[in-house]
What does this fold into?
Amino acid sequence: MRAIYIARKLGLEAYGVAADKHIYRGIEAYELREIAARNKDFLYVNVFRPKPTFLGEAIPISGDGRLTNDHTKQ
It folds into this structure.
């Protein structure tokens, strides 16, 4: 849920899938960490409002993928 919230607040169309939650050893620590992470991310997207960073020209997602094939790393 947190990732979807962040993405949508940053202007992305995001969807999630359901996950089967299990109770496991140490879940209390996970839940405390998640509370802290939710508060941090709320501040991040609602107060600081980061500007997007683009590392180059936009690459279309259509085509066969050769445009992004890096032949220098074989």
Remarks:
- The two ends are 38 Å apart (CA to CA).
- The chain is about 40% helix and 0% strand.
- The helical segments are 2-9, 27-48.
